[in-house]
């Protein structure tokens, strides 16, 4: 999926039409089901679309302004969906440690008592300006070989590499509340300024809960674009 999106980004598909899934499976030497998952992921992000009877095409609006669309490996595109106008995003790891999951986490991730989770806190920045505090809980059993260093990079890319599955769905709630002292300190907010809260559960494409997370976002960056499909594809 990552390579397919790269090819789209560099304009390899001149007529905007992708090869059919059978041809892509042969080209990448993978199963049809793997290609179907990759294509479905790009459709869900609004990067490509299917036209019944004609094939699969690159969305020209995506090519016109990629920063407004979701990008794999970034919280289902949350950070890349902010309108940062070509500025450079970065991840700054604050902490990552294993802990026994509490009751709330066990319920969210369908874990048994005593199971371990990675507890990860990171800061996201755009051109060295912090805009998001990210807190994530991930079952250790899903990524048993992970080390603290792995969380300096995309946790969704790591999931795809380690589990051979994509993070393809989420159940998310978006709210706003008064900022707390940590928000004010890390995100340069005034005491009377609010913070956006994006919390949810992210699932692998086989339905397994992968992450229970919360993102606290500077209100100026709460410009989120989502692609919604109602055609049942």
From TrEMBL:
MF GO annotations: DNA binding; DNA-binding transcription factor activity
Gene3D superfamilies noted in UniProt: Chorismate lyase-like, Winged helix-like DNA-binding domain superfamily/Winged helix DNA-binding domain
Keywords: DNA-binding, Transcription, Transcription regulation
Entries under SMART domains matching the protein: HTH_GNTR (SM00345), UTRA (SM00866)
Cited InterPro entries: Bact_HTH_transcr_reg, Chorismate_lyase_/UTRA_dom_sf, Tscrpt_reg_HTH_GntR, UTRA, WH-like_DNA-bd_sf, WH_DNA-bd_sf
Annotated ranges, domain HTH gntR-type: 1-61
A GO BP annotation: negative regulation of DNA-templated transcription
PROSITE patterns: HTH_GNTR
Pfam assignment, any one: GntR
Protein name per UniProt: HTH gntR-type domain-containing protein
């Amino acid at each position: 999926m990552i390579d397919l999106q790269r090819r789209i980004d560099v304009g390899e598909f001149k007529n905007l039409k992708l090869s059919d899934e059978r041809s892509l499976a042969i080209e990448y030497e993978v199963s049809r089901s793997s290609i179907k998952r990759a294509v479905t992921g790009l459709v869900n992000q609004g990067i490509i679309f299917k036209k019944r009877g004609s094939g699969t095409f690159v969305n020209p609006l995506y090519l016109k302004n990629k920063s407004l669309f979701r990008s794999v490996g970034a919280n289902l595109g949350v950070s890349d969906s902010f309108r940062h106008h070509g500025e450079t995003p970065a991840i700054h790891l604050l902490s990552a440690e294993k802990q026994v999951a509490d009751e709330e986490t066990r319920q969210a991730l369908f874990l048994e008592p005593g199971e371990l989770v990675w507890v990860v806190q990171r800061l996201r920045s755009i051109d060295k300006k912090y805009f998001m505090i990210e807190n994530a809980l991930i079952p250790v059993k899903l990524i048993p070989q992970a080390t603290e260093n792995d969380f300096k990079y995309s946790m969704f890319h790591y999931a795809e590499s380690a589990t051979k599955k994509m993070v393809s769905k989420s159940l998310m709630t978006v709210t706003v509340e008064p900022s707390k002292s940590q928000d004010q300190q890390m995100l340069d907010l005034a005491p009377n300024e609010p913070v956006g809260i994006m919390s949810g559960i992210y699932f692998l494409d086989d339905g397994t809960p992968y992450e229970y997370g919360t993102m606290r976002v500077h209100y100026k960056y709460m410009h989120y674009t989502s692609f919604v499909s109602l055609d049942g594809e």
